[in-house]
């Protein structure tokens, strides 16, 4: 176990439990990621973040967000997320993780600065490595 | 006249008694009486009456003596003597006695035209003018009217009355006088005897005269009484005078009346004059009115003509208007039909729009469906492949070869399904792009060469291009088009054959002289049988097994859809074993 992980705590938001199971496995396997937790709805994710902002839960460093979800989709989650305290959220990176290769979704992603990246499923070890390379290595250097 | 007759009568009585002397006087009186009873044509002119006597007649003495006592026609009488007929002139009356044997015809001829009355004695009946004849102690006479009228004399009726009117009588007289002469001579003797007795008778007559004088006295008395009568008559005349005065008064009254009437008439006159004036005025007024009427008539005529012109104008206008109305109606009808057509067209357009809208919605739905389907289908597939990877990674040691191969097949199938789903998704999205830009085809090919570098290098392919044009279109789609065709050219080659792909383009124009580009991509591949020429452009149509040539079977369907979305056409020429040329057109 390494003491210093580039990503200490990862939050997975996807309505599919199977995907969450798979993604947890992939993330856990990767050396650069420490802890991982998954929620199966955007609402639950918001609740978790509110708790985290109050110190009731662990604050995540990275969020993998699915777009197509029932009740509240990814975009609606972003709107609610923006309402949170920026002091709390500024250190959190959000990456869209979706099966969608719909260019409209990609265009919309480009308009939102707060989103770090747009990744197509399935998640894989190589993808995570690339992600660390592009989003975290620079900081550490 | 009675007086004259009395005179004759008296004379005749005297002739009987005083013989020759008396007869001579009688002759003169006869002649004077003739003159008195005859009217001369130019009687007034002469100042005296002249009597001529032809021959040495003693009658001239008788005439002259009578001229002392009598005038003829209030003129003094002179008596002249002519010895021959040719001396006769300047007399009103000529006396000729037959005893001097003057030719009567000669005399008549001579005195003709001199207004001389010829009185003859003892000439034949109706040979002179007035012819006297001795009858006893007196004279008878006859008048030859023929000669008298010829000279223009007018014989008084009384003279005519006592004249002898026929020649027989004349002859008788003549003979009687002869006999009488004898008898008278006898009677004369007897008378001489009677004379003594007559003297005695005269005495008695003187006595008678005395008685007569007394009678005259009585007559004088009667005259006095008559005077008295006359006086009474004069008194009566006084009365008459008074009556006359009354009458005068009445007349004056009448005059006054007349005057008043005259005044009345005058006033009436004035009235009439004023009336006349009024009439004149009225006449003037009427004339003015006539003039006015004439002017009005003129104006009327003008107006009439104006009216006529107006009428014609009106008629023209009416025809124009009716034409315009007709035209308007026609236009309106055509407008209506147009409107109807327009409405139909609109309806149809609306229907079309609705349909196109519906189609768009359907397309969107389809796209959405395809997208969601692919997304939702992909996710479990991805999960499956991911889980298989995990399984293989974590449990590889515990599986036998069959298990490993099964897992491998599952993984491959999942991967292929992923590709198919992606292809469907892509196909559904093709032709949706509306961002047409100017695309330089040369740069598109060079980018593709970079993208396909691995494949090109691996297969040792050669891509030859001529200078390609810049066209209008959606860049991503066109790139996909070229990519698919080039990939196919590389893919479908026999093993050991190095693919050679040549890309060309030229400008052509169709029947409607619209220019378009014709692109050709030629390969040296396996070729396509003619019977499959159309089929290969349908989705998921494959001519070969996946073992021989991998692929989804959707590439050419993509190409067709892209070309048609750019209003072009795609077709191919191919010879099996030698190669295929794909052609497509893009409007210039």
From TrEMBL, chain A:
Single GO BP term: phosphorelay signal transduction system
Domain of life (superkingdom): Bacteria
Signal peptide limits: none
UniProt key word Ribosomal protein: no
Response regulatory domain span: 9-136
TM helices/strands, residue ranges: none
InterPro entries: CheY-like_superfamily, Sig_transdc_resp-reg_receiver, TCS_response_regulator
SMART domains reported in the protein's UniProt record: REC
Entry keywords, A to Z: Phosphoprotein
Residues bearing the modification 4-aspartylphosphate: 66
Name the record gives this protein: Response regulator receiver domain-containing protein
From TrEMBL, chain B:
SUPFAM superfamilies: ATPase domain of HSP90 chaperone/DNA topoisomerase II/histidine kinase, Homodimeric domain of signal transducing histidine kinase
Keyword terms of this UniProt record: Coiled coil, Kinase, Membrane, Phosphoprotein, Transferase, Transmembrane, Transmembrane helix
EC number: 2.7.13.3
CDD domains: HisKA
Record carries keyword Kinase: yes
Classification via InterPro entries: HATPase_C_sf, HATPase_dom, His_kinase_dom, HisK_dim/P_dom, HisK_dim/P_sf, Sensor_kinase/Photoreceptor, Sig_transdc_His_kin-like_C, YfiR/HmsC-like
Stretches of the chain forming a coiled coil according to its record: 338-365
Residues passing through the membrane, by range: 315-336
Molecular function in Gene Ontology: phosphorelay sensor kinase activity
Signal peptide from the UniProt entry: none
Domain Histidine kinase: 372-588
Protein name, UniProt field: histidine kinase
């Amino acid at each position: 176990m390494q003491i210093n992980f580039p990503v200490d705590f990862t939050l997975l938001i996807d309505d599919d439990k199977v995907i969450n199971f798979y993604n947890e496995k992939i993330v856990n396997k990767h050396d650069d990621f420490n802890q991982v937790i998954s929620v199966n709805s955007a609402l639950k994710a918001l609740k978790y973040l509110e708790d985290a902002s109050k110190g009731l839960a662990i604050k995540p460093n990275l969020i993998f967000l699915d777009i197509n979800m029932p009740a509240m989709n990814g975009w609606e989650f972003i709107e609610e997320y923006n309402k949170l305290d920026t002091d709390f959220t500024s250190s959190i990176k959000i990456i869209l993780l979706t099966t969608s290769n719909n260019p409209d979704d990609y265009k919309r992603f480009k308009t939102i600065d707060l989103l770090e990246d747009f990744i197509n499923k399935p998640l894989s070890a190589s993808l995570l490595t690339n992600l660390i390379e592009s989003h975290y290595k620079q900081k550490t250097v | 006249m009675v007086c004259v007759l009395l005179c004759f009568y008296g004379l005749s009585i005297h002739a009987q008694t005083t013989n020759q002397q008396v007869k001579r006087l009688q002759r003169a009186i006869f002649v004077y009486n003739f003159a008195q009873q005859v009217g001369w044509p130019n009687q007034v002119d002469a100042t005296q009456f002249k009597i001529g006597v032809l021959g040495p007649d003693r009658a001239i003495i008788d005439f002259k003596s009578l001229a002392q006592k009598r005038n003829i026609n209030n003129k003094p009488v002179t008596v002249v003597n002519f010895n021959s007929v040719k001396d006769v002139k300047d007399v009103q009356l000529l006396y000729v006695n037959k005893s001097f044997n003057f030719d009567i015809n000669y005399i008549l001829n001579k005195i003709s035209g001199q207004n001389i009355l010829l009185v003859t004695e003892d000439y034949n009946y109706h040979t002179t003018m007035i012819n006297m004849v001795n009858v006893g102690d007196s004279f008878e006479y006859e008048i030859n009217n023929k000669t008298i009228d010829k000279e223009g004399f007018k014989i008084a009726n009384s003279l005519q009355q006592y004249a002898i009117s026929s020649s027989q009588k004349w002859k008788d007289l003549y003979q009687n006088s002869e006999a009488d002469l004898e008898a008278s001579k006898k009677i004369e003797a007897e008378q001489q005897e009677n004379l003594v007795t007559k003297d005695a008778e005269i005495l008695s007559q003187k006595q008678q005269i005395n008685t007569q004088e007394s009678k005259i006295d009585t007559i004088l008395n009667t005259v006095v009484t008559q005077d008295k009568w006359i006086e009474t008559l004069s008194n009566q005349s006084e009365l008459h005078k008074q009556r006359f005065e009354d009458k005068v008064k009445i007349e004056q009254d009448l005059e006054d009346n007349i005057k008043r009437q005259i005044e009345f008439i005058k006033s009436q006159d004035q009235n009439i004059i004023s009336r006349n004036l009024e009439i004149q005025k009225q006449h003037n007024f009427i004339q003015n009115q006539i003039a006015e009427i004439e002017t009005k008539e003129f104006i009327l005529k003008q107006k009439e003509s104006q009216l006529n012109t107006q009428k014609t104008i009106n008629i023209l206008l009416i025809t124009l208007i009716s034409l315009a109305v007709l035209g308007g109606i026609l236009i309106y009808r055509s407008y209506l039909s147009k409107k109807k057509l327009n409405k139909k067209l609109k309806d149809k357009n609306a229907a079309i729009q609705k349909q196109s809208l519906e189609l768009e919605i359907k397309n969107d739905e389809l796209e959405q469906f395809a997208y969601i389907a692919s997304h939702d289908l992909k996710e479990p597939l991805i999960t499956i492949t991911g889980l298989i990877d995990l399984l293989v990674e974590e449990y590889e040691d515990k599986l036998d070869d069959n298990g490993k191969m099964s897992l491998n097949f599952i993984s491959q199938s999942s991967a292929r399904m992923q590709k198919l789903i992606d292809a469907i998704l892509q196909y559904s999205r093709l032709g949706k792009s509306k961002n047409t830009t100017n695309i330089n085809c040369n740069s598109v090919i060079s980018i593709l060469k970079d993208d396909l570098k691995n494949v090109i290098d691996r297969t040792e392919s050669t891509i030859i291009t001529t200078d390609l044009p810049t066209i209008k279109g959606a860049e991503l789609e066109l790139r996909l088009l070229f990519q698919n065709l080039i990939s196919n050219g590389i893919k479908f080659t026999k093993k050991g054959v190095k693919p050679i792909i040549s890309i060309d383009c030229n400008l052509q124009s169709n029947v409607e002289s619209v220019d378009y580009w014709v692109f050709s991509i030629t390969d040296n591949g396996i070729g396509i049988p003619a019977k499959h020429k159309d089929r290969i452009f349908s989705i998921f149509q494959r001519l070969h097994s996946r073992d021989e040539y991998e692929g989804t079977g959707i590439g050419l369907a993509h190409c067709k859809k892209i070309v048609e979305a750019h209003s072009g056409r795609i077709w191919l020429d191919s010879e099996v074993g030698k190669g295929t040329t794909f052609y497509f057109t893009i409007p210039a």
